[in-house]
Design brief:
Number of domains: 1
Order of helices and strands: HEHHHEHEEHHEHHHEHHEHEHEHHEH
Strand order of the largest sheet: 1-10-9-8-7-6
Oligomer: single chain
Largest sheet: 6 strands, parallel
Structural class: alpha/beta
Number of strands: 10
CATH topology: TIM Barrel
CATH architecture: Alpha-Beta Barrel
Radius of gyration: 21 Å
Shape: globular
CATH class: Alpha Beta
Strand content: 5-15%
Distance between the termini: 22 Å
Helix content: 40-55%
């Protein structure tokens, strides 16, 4: 058996997928993003039409996904953010980073109560409607939470990073408030769905903007609290801004799976040193949006060569169809 044959055989079996966010589904379905997040019927229409479009255009079936369309910013909104719903852009925060303008406001901030948050009431109602309409199908209900550091930054802005140096006790107070909010919303979701076990995921991109040496104080204790109090053995993490030096701290969490997203600071070889299964992204803007089919295929082949075993790409609005076809073609070659 030749060495070349062995190498080619070892490169097969690569799992792959395409993440299609709501704004792209709305692009293909011709529906409003703002309505998608506020009207269950628009969400259902969008899911059905966009799925069929992907089958027709790319012979790729994203599968059926039935869920209550909450954003990742519901926890931030419950703590004072103003969500903005438009027809053409994904949901944004109008006062992002300007919610806690004064550090003194942290002292008066209290964890959010899901029962007093109007969109959570709407979500419970929508969940009930979907269960009635599709009694034999799983219905997703998200807690709508970003991770502790990211939520703190969305509330306080980049000033939060200075708070960690200048007023650490208040930085911890804020992290405790947002962590408690994270837990309350997740527990409220469990009460509605009746699902009290399974994987627990934390998505906390801004944690990577804290130096690795700060993680033992300002990051890991809050992650441990979330994983412990939600009682999971399956710990999942999404983070996009960590550097190689952060990996030793991530290792302490005993994760089951990690998604490095669009992380610009790591290579596949770096990720492998963590010793945790991970998904590797073909970059959304740099490759899929602004590149060409050759770059898509080269990027994929490079990731496979370096040792990635699970590869995905997340689309954004405007990705050229030929680049999507190139991704699918190269992915099938290595699956």
């Amino acid at each position: 058996m030749s060495e070349k044959y062995v190498q080619e055989k070892d490169m097969r079996g690569i799992r792959w997928s395409i993440a299609i966010p709501p704004e792209v589904k709305c692009e293909y379905a011709g529906t409003s993003i703002g309505e998608y997040f506020q009207d269950i019927e628009v969400m259902l229409e969008t899911e059905e039409v966009s799925r069929q479009k992907f089958v027709d255009l790319y012979q790729y079936d994203p599968g059926e996904y039935l869920y209550v369309p909450l954003t990742a910013y519901e926890g931030v909104a419950a703590l004072g953010a103003q969500l903005v719903f438009t027809d053409e852009h994904e949901v944004m925060i109008h006062n992002q980073g300007n919610i806690l303008l004064s550090i003194d406001q942290i002292n008066t901030l209290k964890p959010a109560d899901p029962s007093k948050y109007p969109r959570f009431d709407w979500a419970i109602e929508a969940y009930g409607e979907l269960k009635k309409k599709f009694p034999n199908k799983p219905i997703g209900l998200s807690a709508g939470q970003e991770g502790p550091v990211t939520t703190a930054v969305l509330l306080r802005g980049t000033q939060f990073f200075l708070d960690c140096y200048d007023a650490p006790e208040l930085a911890h107070k804020l992290l405790n408030v947002v962590t408690e909010t994270f837990l309350r919303f997740n527990l409220a979701v469990r009460k509605v769905t009746g699902q009290n076990s399974g994987a627990v995921g934390i998505a906390d991109d801004h944690a990577g903007n804290l130096t690795p040496k700060m993680w033992d104080e300002f990051v890991l204790p809050y992650y441990e609290r979330i994983y412990s109090e939600l009682g999971t053995r399956t710990r999942v993490m999404h983070t996009e801004l960590v550097r190689r030096e952060h990996l030793a701290y991530l290792k302490k969490l005993k994760l089951a799976l990690i998604d490095f997203g669009e992380d610009q600071y790591l290579t596949v070889k770096d990720a492998l040193t963590l010793g945790v299964p991970f998904s590797w992204h073909i970059k959304t803007c740099q490759v899929m949006l602004m590149g060409n089919p050759d770059l898509v295929k080269q990027s994929y082949e490079q990731a496979v060569t370096e040792g990635a075993k699970a590869i995905l790409t997340e689309l954004c609005v405007g990705v050229p169809p030929e680049n999507i076809r190139a991704f699918i073609e190269i992915a099938k070659r290595y699956e």
